């Protein structure tokens, strides 16, 4: 490698052999001489074991460092020819710069140097590289390579100012790499003006800064005046000026701002054709902003048609979607078709409102859980006809977690010594929390009225009324006893 460097050095600084004066015919030469030597300068090649000085010249040192980047001879020749500042670079700063770059870009530094040789000498790069090590250590290699290969060094101070501004405005340092990895890093941190960057941050603060940019970094790619503001204004107009509602929508799903005004308008026009008002559409979006991500052709149109075939009018469709918006985006093949088949097996008839309502409830659980719930009921002696009756009365019964469901049924039978058949008249029993409501209230009432109490009256009354009524019945002394029951003292204190 050293020999190659010296040879390359001699290419740029050739030396010539001494040329003797032309001999006279009368004076013979004391030694033979070649005509080639007299007419063409010859480069000097130094052997590896021979040096001309104890200190390597700066140019030679530079060549040695550059050769360590695995550049070909042709690439190195072109690099030095087109960038003369590299030949005069001070050896020690040059060595430190290459070492710093290699620590950050160990596998692709040679590609960056070929495209952007000024990164080897530009003074603006020093603070930038330090910032990278301190705050952007998890920046994706591909992102870093594109940044260093395409960015003029004079833009790095702008990069630092914007990154520091994010940190100053509350973005955690640990999240900075993730933000940089998910934006157009050159556009956002280098090309966008500092004023526009600051204005964008100020505008986004109303939607929950810095959470919004941590959850959806790509929002920084959007132009404030031509993209962000028009989209927010469209949603505000859709909601008849409900700015708080729009803020809630964006906080729930920051990605909603990625959709264009044209996209918004297209979806709203579809719902208007169904018979929904703009107010209806806004309320659905408020509950489920992802409604804008559903394909009109593949999902919205066929599912609205299904609801219409089940007998739902526009107002019914609105009420259905407020309670079951996932119906619009779940996969038909992997999800809805399986649930539909299970409901039909239980006895639901096609094209009925009951089937539509049951499908709405089923969207809030997985296919596997729904099948396990049916299995738990069957294991306690219920039939498919019984499940049909219960789910008609209380559609949510099929969406409860099967593990929790089994524990409540076990407590009903063994802890409360009640007949499992009581669920036929009051299936909502399975929707109450076992420890916080069912067990607690049962222990309170058991001391007053014994075990034969109405499940409906026990659980459906509000917590405030229940506590007030029972404090009047049992008095202060009984209240004290209840507060000493393990796990209930803090609960009563919080409610009072």
Automatic annotation (TrEMBL):
Pfam families: mTERF (PF02536)
Highest taxon of the lineage: Eukaryota
Keywords: Signal, Transcription, Transcription regulation, Transcription termination, Transit peptide
Leader sequence segment: 1-18
Gene Ontology molecular function: any one: nucleic acid binding
GO annotation (BP), single: DNA-templated transcription termination
Protein family according to the UniProt entry: Belongs to the mTERF family.
Protein name: Transcription termination factor MTERF8, chloroplastic
């Amino acid at each position: 490698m050293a020999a190659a460097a010296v040879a390359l050095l001699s290419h740029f600084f050739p030396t010539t052999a001494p040329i003797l004066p032309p001999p006279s015919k009368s004076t013979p030469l004391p030694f033979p001489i070649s005509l080639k030597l007299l007419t063409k300068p010859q480069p000097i090649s130094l052997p590896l074991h021979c040096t001309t000085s104890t200190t390597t010249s700066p140019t030679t040192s530079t060549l040695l460092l550059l050769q360590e980047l695995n550049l070909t001879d042709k690439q190195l020749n072109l690099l030095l020819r087109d960038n003369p500042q590299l030949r005069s670079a001070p050896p020690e700063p040059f060595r430190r710069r290459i070492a710093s770059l290699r620590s950050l870009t160990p596998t692709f530094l040679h590609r960056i140097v070929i495209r952007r040789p000024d990164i080897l000498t530009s003074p603006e790069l020093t603070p930038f590289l330090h910032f990278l090590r301190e705050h952007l250590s998890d920046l994706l290699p591909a992102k870093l390579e594109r940044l260093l290969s395409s960015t003029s060094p004079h833009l790095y101070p702008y990069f630092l100012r914007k990154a520091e501004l994010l940190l100053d405005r509350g973005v955690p340092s640990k999240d900075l790499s993730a933000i940089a990895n998910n934006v157009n890093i050159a556009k956002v941190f280098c090309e966008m003006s500092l004023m526009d960057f600051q204005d964008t941050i100020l505008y986004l603060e109303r939607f929950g800064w810095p959470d919004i940019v941590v959850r959806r970094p790509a929002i920084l790619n959007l132009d404030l005046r031509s993209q962000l503001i028009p989209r927010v204004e469209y949603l505000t107009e859709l909601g008849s000026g409900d700015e708080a509602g729009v803020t809630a929508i964006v906080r729930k799903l920051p990605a909603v701002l990625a959709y264009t005004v044209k996209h918004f308008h297209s979806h709203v026009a579809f719902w208007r054709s169904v018979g929904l008002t703009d107010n209806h559409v806004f309320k659905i979006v408020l509950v489920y902003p992802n409604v804008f991500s559903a394909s009109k052709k593949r999902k919205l149109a066929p599912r609205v048609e299904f609801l219409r075939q089940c007998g739902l009018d526009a107002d019914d469709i609105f009420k259905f979607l407020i309670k079951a918006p996932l119906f619009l985006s779940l996969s038909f093949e992997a999800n809805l078709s399986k649930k539909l088949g299970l409901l039909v097996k239980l006895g639901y008839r096609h094209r009925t409102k009951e089937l539509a309502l049951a499908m709405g409830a089923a969207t809030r659980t997985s296919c596997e859980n729904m099948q396990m719930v049916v299995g738990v009921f069957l294991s306690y002696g219920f039939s498919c006809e019984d499940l049909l009756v219960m789910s008609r009365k209380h559609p949510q019964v099929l969406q409860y977690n099967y593990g929790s469901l089994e524990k409540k049924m076990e407590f009903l039978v063994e802890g409360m010594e009640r007949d499992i058949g009581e669920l036929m008249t009051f299936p909502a029993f399975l929707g109450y929390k076992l420890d916080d409501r069912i067990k607690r209230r049962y222990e309170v009432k058991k001391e007053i009225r014994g075990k034969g109490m109405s499940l409906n009256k026990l659980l459906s009354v509000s917590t405030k009324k229940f506590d007030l009524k029972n404090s009047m019945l049992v008095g202060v002394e009984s209240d004290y006893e209840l507060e000493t029951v393990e796990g209930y003292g803090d609960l009563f204190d919080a409610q009072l």
